[in-house]
Amino acid sequence: MRGKLVAGNWKMNGSLASVRELIDGINRGMDTIQSAGVAVCPPAVYIPEVAARIGGGRLALGAQNIGDQDGGAFTGEIAGSMLRDFGCRYAVVGHSERRSIYAESDQLVARRFAAARRAGLVPILCVGELLEEREQGFTEAVVGRQLDAVIELEGIAGFADAVVAYEPVWAIGTGRTASPDQAQEVHAFIRRKLADMDAGIADRLIIQYGGSVKGANAAELFSMQDIDGGLIGGASLDAGEFLAICKAAD
Ligand code: PEP
């Protein structure tokens, strides 16, 4: 039986002082979370600080991105082995901000996914459609294409130790959440598509929802059959709100 996973994506927010306060606040509330997996993805430079403060507890650490190569002359990139050195377990790949603002292609995202697996990290693959794509009825085509790029490179086996986050781009940071039924429909599509290749892998795959999740709407979203937790942006910057979301996944 797959569990639930809530991951906080802090994006490019915070300072050393605010990061300390946030992680200490989350840490203090962790003993109230029974079964859900919980991870935080701080800006890369704060990973060592957060790692030191969470120690060996249940709270897991992730990176917001990962280099597609294993090392060498790739200015500005961070290799998976380096993330492992500082205790990371997860690496987000293909966040819509990377895809749209930094023009990351499906193929580059797939290479980042592969690099995470080579390093022994669990990739959190973000997929999702733009508002105009949804309105034109292209949601499944877009999400299917984003999955296919990874399947082409890694095969269906690549999803055996990965997480997928369905994040409709129109719901990210906008306060406009997909309804539980809208989200469930796409989550079920993702699982069906992968189940056509390997039913066991699809059944065990954690598929998170992301897009304006808050303490107030999390329980309803997480109660849907194929929604296995969330990737949380804005609300993960507030320890109380983030813990409320984690409790909803519990
Ligand atoms: C995200 O950036 O992954 C995200 C889901 O952001 P928010 O929760 O702020 O919509």
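^ phosphoenolpyruvate complex. The longest helix spans residues 139-154. The mean pLDDT is 97.
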